[in-house]
Amino acid sequence: MSALSSFFANRVAVIATMHRKEDVITPLIESALGIKTVVPTNFNTDSFGTFTRETDRPADQLTTARLKAEAALELTGETLAIASEGSFGPHPQIPFVACNRELVLLCDYEHQIEVVGEALSTDTNYQSRVVDSPQSALAFARSVGFPEHGVVVMHAAGENPKNAFAKGITTEADLSQAVTAVLERSPERKAHIETDMRALYNPTRMAVIAQATQNLIKTLQQRCPNCNYPGFSIVQRRPGLPCSLCKAPTLLTLSVLYRCQHCQFQRDKLFPDSLQAADPGRCLYCNP
């Protein structure tokens, strides 16, 4: 039995999802932690926000994942939960590139710890378009991986854009029917089509959730040097890596601070990215 398996022995984890995220989370988590997982029935994660904007997310990404986990634990009476939350938008460092940030959170009431795995990927089909015919809608859909990836048809901007007319579209017939219906109701003969970012309709996103789950497991495997609890993780990154040319501090990470949630033991680590100096191209003095 592995160290993690012994720590979580004979536990049941509730996966807070209604979009089949357990398809990728369960095999990884059960194997690494030696636990069993269940998905609660009648658990509506849409109440915590929808990508199609009918319901706003109640808080930031991490807090929303925590709210999902807490709701699943309250519903089931268990003490261990796993929740996932995704976001899509511009990459924080690469201009004009879309990215997918996934968080997978483990909430353990028995040991009073919360551990997060994360993945940031540019491998996403997150896109939308305004179309004026079923043919143009189909061309867009195929460009984003349809029919393996689902799409959503909505009214165009200014015509109740928060009203998703049809979600989870994975056949040409359903796509044509939905677009035609929206066009007939549109004064401008326009329809909005976008990728369905729910995990069960988006294999590309599902793969990133798997990456975040693997990162969660890796973080859990980092044991506290003081009390041996899992999840000894980074809580702060400190910039200041010196430029290799002029030695001035840059914005790149010089050190990180690890902290244990259980005993609060802390440890600094220099050069966490295996770099002891920054390229002059990242220096504000050498490359203003």
Q: What is the topological layout?
A:
Blueprint: H1 3-7, E1 12-16, H2 22-33, E2 36-38, H3 61-76, E3 80-90, E4 98-108, E5 113-121, E6 128-131, H4 134-143, E7 151-155, E8 164-169, H5 172-185, E9 191-195, H6 203-220, E10 233-239, E11 253-259, E12 266-270
Parallel strand pairs: 1-2, 1-3
Antiparallel strand pairs: 3-4, 4-5, 6-9, 7-8, 7-9, 10-11, 11-12
Helix pairs in contact: 2-6, 4-5
Note down, in words, how this protein is organized.
The chain is an alpha+beta fold. It contains six helices and twelve strands. It has a five-stranded mixed beta sheet with strand order 2-1-3-4-5, with helices on both faces. The protein is flat and about 65 Å long. The model has no long low-confidence stretch (mean pLDDT 94).
The first-level CATH class of the largest domain is given as: Alpha Beta
The biggest beta sheet reads: 5 strands, mixed
Helicity level: 25-40%
Order of helices and strands: HEHEHEEEEHEEHEHEEE
How far is it from the N-terminal to the C-terminal residue, by CA? 54 Å
- Structural class by secondary-structure content: alpha+beta
Number of domains: 3
Low-confidence stretches: none
The overall pLDDT, averaged over residues, is: 94
The geometry reads as: flat
| Second-tier CATH architecture of the largest domain | Alpha-Beta Complex
Overall strand count: 12
What is the beta-strand fraction?
25-35%
| CATH fold-type name of the largest domain | Maf protein
- The rounded Rg comes to 22 Å
Spatial arrangement of strands, main beta sheet? 2-1-3-4-5
* Number of H- or I-type helical stretches: 6
